[in-house]
Design a protein that fits this description.
By secondary structure, the protein is α/β, with parallel strands linked by helices. The protein contains six helices and seven strands; from the N terminus they run E-H-E-H-E-E-H-E-E-H-E-H-H. It has helices at residues 17-25, 48-69, 97-107, 143-152, 179-183, 187-196; strands spanning 9-12, 32-33, 75-86, 89-90, 111-121, 127-138, 172-176. It starts with 8 loop residues before the first strand and ends in a 5-residue tail after the last helix.
Length: 201
Amino acid sequence: MAAPNKNPLLILASASPRRKDLLAALYVAPDGIVPADIDEAVKIGELPRTYGQRVAREKAQKVYDLRQAARESAAVILAADTVVAVGRRILPKTETESEAHMCLALMSGRAHRVFTAVAVIDENGKLRENCVETRLKMKRLSAEELAFYLRTNEWKGKAGGYGIQGFAGAFISHLSGSYSNVVGLPLLQTRHLLLSSGYKL
């Protein structure tokens, strides 16, 4: 256990620069970044919220177990997973232009939801988790707008093919809920989970 007046180590189980930047907004700097290598395939019939929660939980547990096996110092493990969904359909993290085109065309003029599941495992192995939902609507995109956005390459590796913190923010006509959740980490809930896990902010 950490000394009473000393914070435990904090390990971020994600290579996302956006999550690291969001933590910085809480004046939190991870002591280590260890991306969790897990199978993120969607299971048959899995709903968006359930999927995000499972993946975040498995990421946190994988990093916790690896540190335990290596007999490394106890640490608080923070993991998250962001899911973009249209209805029950989970959109992919887009790696090709055709995938991004499909996602943006599907969301054009329609409502969609963004879920970010956050999982925190404390020094004693106790899991705490939360999943936040934000509802958004994207304006109807013209062929020119869609073609321009695809040329920016901002969509690469993004759930649903866009990042709200970039140019695509100009496509969002309505947002209900947490903005930071859409970027990749709901700050209010993450702060609460860290505090509950013994990490002082």
